[in-house]
What we know:
The protein is 72% helix and 2% strand. It is an all-alpha fold and 226 residues long. It has one domain. The chain has a two-stranded antiparallel ribbon with strand order 1-2. β1 and β2 form a beta hairpin. α2 (55-97) packs across α3 (105-117), α2 (55-97) packs antiparallel against α4 (127-158) and α4 (127-158) runs antiparallel to α6.
Amino acid sequence: MVSPPPEQTLVHFYRAVVLHMDVWRQRMDATTNWAAATSAGMITFAFSTPASPHFVLLLALGFQGVFLLMESRRYQTFDLWRHRFRALNRHLVGPALRNDAELPAESRAALGALALDLGRLVPQIGLASAAGYRIRRNYGYLFLVTLVAWVLRLELLAGAAADFQEVVAQARIGTLSGGLVVGVVLAAALAGSLLAFLAPSERMLDWVAVPPPLSRWKRGPQVPRT
């Protein structure tokens, strides 16, 4: 059996990498659609009748957290294939477009490392970083809309003339006090926001990943390149 030329092998491999990225991107989109549809249905139910309990919206937040965990794990696999895609673009497609006569030593070493990487399926991004990135891109909006709806539901339960303490008191669930429920929700919101601001960025400048938002704020405004 005659082996295919290296050029033909690389073409098919590049197409396979792009296909894997597209498949995992579609799987992530499906999870986001499930989360959005579930949240919309539960928010609608929570405001359908005056007797609807407010904790339905907390259940919606819980379902969003489950979907976020599922999508974060899928994002880890997507990021693995995206890393390979970017390595091919940087060290193979880029030199070819520049019409380099010979691959630089750095590119040859990187392609060799990519060949070894094909034998491992360990994610290159942690689950917390993947979750933070998905919060920043998609789930943060779902969390925010559901939290606002929950606060409005509590205010409706307490009455238009109620003060803040009465609104908090309406957040009780069974034997759990309203203050405890509100505290847990605020702590979860703070943890999610911290994950979102610390998560890595998807963008690159000159093949270097852009720092996370929190790191960019600490560095201050960047001077644009000319």
